[in-house]
Write a structure and sequence with these properties.
This protein folds into two domains: 2-176 and 214-237, NAD(P)-binding Rossmann-like Domain (Rossmann fold), CATH 3.40.50.720; 187-209 and 242-276 and 293-312, Alpha-Beta Complex (UDP-galactose 4-epimerase, domain 1), CATH 3.90.25. 43% of the residues are buried. The longest helix has 21 residues, at 143-163. It is built from ten helices and 13 strands. The mean pLDDT is 96. By secondary structure, the protein is of the alpha/beta class. Strands 3-2-1-4-5-6-11 form a seven-stranded parallel sheet, with helices on both faces. Helices cover 37% and strands 17% of the residues. The structure holds nicotinamide-adenine-dinucleotide (NAD). Nicotinamide-adenine-dinucleotide (NAD) binds at residues 6-7, 9-13, 30-36, 56-58, 73-77, 81, 92, 96, 114, 116, 172, 174-175. The site of nicotinamide-adenine-dinucleotide has 30 residues, from helix 1, strand 2 and strand 5.
């Protein structure tokens, strides 16, 4: 197949690209590098089946030839990223989604929207299943991301219902692994970099808020399975093993024995979710999917990758 991936130089999309190329497909990556990194796709420079287009998907894309699949992965994804680029985040998840749905309709391509667990906001139920409508502050410091993704979901379903576009919807929960931007403030990468650099490990609040961490290879396998399934409604993808932020800090420190870092506490940012855990019953039932990489394996792989990067710097 000929597959287009928006946000192709990002953390998740670069791993998804590797998977699709391994499966023998042709991949066209599109990115404007607002939060992505050129190094994430540097290994694809000489790959025949890969083509890269530097472009902003807020503008309509003109692509010659057929396209079979469109994965819409473009969007700042960390609180630091989307607060720094508030308008761009709203636009890529509105005008960008719209443009790519138009392209999907024109090319008769199947379209997958990468939405997020942030659609559930600061949830009043735990774990979150797809039937929960969420608890989102529409004007808060995360609204440019949460509400824009909710708009993207509505837009995807409207093109499906009214225009007959073949669409898929995923809600991704916290994912970690190599190629994350070390400076984008997401919890796992921040703790690993702090621990490797002997800096204080900064935990917000008392650290009892929870997260559930999925390793990137599990996640991209799930994204691909959703795309190739027949299921149109949203599917949660994430690892249901829930733990506190303080536990994440302790686990990272335990895996970096020589580190001189100490855990310190900082004020909670506004609207930070107190719990976050996916109910993945639907993914299990529809796709036969569940995560297989344990946290200790995943964290160890990631620590190795960033230790290597530190040495090379
Ligand atoms: N990683 C996670 O834990 C997680 C969780 C929930 C949802 N998601 C979603 O998955 C997708 C990928 O996230 P990620 O973690 O890889 O983030 P990332 O920042 O590494 O990747 C996003 C990519 O999109 C690109 N981009 C942004 N706006 C663009 C535009 N207008 N035109 C072209 N390219 C643009 C960025 O430059 C970047 O390369 C995002 O849509 C995000 O909302 C990720």
């Amino acid at each position: 197949m000929r597959i287009l991936i928006s946000g192709g130089a990002g953390f998740l999309a670069s791993h998804l690209t590797d998977l699709l190329l391994e499966q023998g497909h042709q991949v066209i990556g599109v990115d404007n590098f607002i939060t992505g990194q050129r190094e994430n796709i540097a290994h694809l420079d000489d790959v025949d089946n890969y083509r890269f287009i530097e472009a902003d998907v807020i503008e309509p894309l003109s692509i010659s030839g057929s396209i079979d699949r469109i994965y819409h992965m473009a969007s700042p994804a960390s609180p630091i990223g989307y607060v720094k680029h508030q308008v761009a985040t709203l636009k890529v998840n509105s005008q960008g989604t719209w443009n790519l749905l138009e392209l999907a309709e024109k090319k008769k391509a199947r379209f997958l929207m990468a939405s997020t667990s942030e659609c559930y906001g600061d949830p009043a139920v735990n774990p979150q299943s797809e039937s929960y409508w969420g608890n989102v502050n529409p004007i808060g410091m995360r609204s440019m991301y949460d509400e824009a993704k909710r708009f993207s979901e509505a837009c995807t379903m409207a093109y499906h219902r009214e225009r007959g576009v073949d669409t898929r919807l995923i809600r991704i929960f916290n994912t970690y692994g190599p190629r994350m931007d070390p400076y984008d403030g997401r919890v796992v990468i921040s703790f690993i970099c702090q621990a490797l650099n002997d800096e204080d490990i900064t935990v917000f609040g008392d650290g009892r808020q929870t997260r559930s961490l999925c390793y990137v290879s599990d996640l991209v396998r799930g994204i691909n399975l959703v795309m190739e399934s027949d299921f149109v409604e949203p599917i949660n993808l994430g690892n249901p093993s829930e733990l506190t932020i303080l536990d994440i800090a302790r686990e990272v420190l335990a895996l970096i024995p020589g580190s001189k870092s100490k855990i310190v506490h900082q004020p909670m940012p506004p609207d930070d979710p107190k719990v976050r855990c996916p109910d993945i019953s639907r993914a299990r039932k529809i796709l036969g999917w569940e995560p297989v990489v344990t946290r200790s394996e995943g964290l160890a792989k990631m620590i190795e990758y960033y230790r290597d990067q530190l040495v090379r710097r």
